[in-house]
Amino acid sequence: MEYLFSYGTLQSKEIQMQVFNKLLIGTEDQLTGYKLKGLQIEEEFGMEDYFVAMPSDNPADTITGIAFAVTSDDLIKADQFESNAYKRIQITLKSGITAWIFIES
């Protein structure tokens, strides 16, 4: 089992059903040393506003989100869902869990 840390869209039950065809199980966690930055992505009907995680110069910066337990197949589905404005890397959360996160490309 692996973990995927979500700070945005993938927390939505509707999006989880669309992407994974199931609801994910997770626990709240935090990522320190990162911050969120606004990002515009071109969607089918125009530009949409999203957020992207990026490393911060301030180690006190924190992103709150959910660490979801996922399979390797789920990670492939998440990769297909996320825009090429994001890349997936592994990080260590405040809880000590190692998780995947989508950050700025």
UniProtKB/TrEMBL annotation:
Task: Please give the SUPFAM superfamilies that the UniProt record associates with this protein.
Answer: Gamma-glutamyl cyclotransferase-like
Q: Where is the Gamma-glutamylcyclotransferase AIG2-like domain?
A: 4-103
Name the record gives this protein? Gamma-glutamylcyclotransferase
Highest classification ranks of the organism:
Bacteria, Pseudomonadati, Bacteroidota, Flavobacteriia, Flavobacteriales
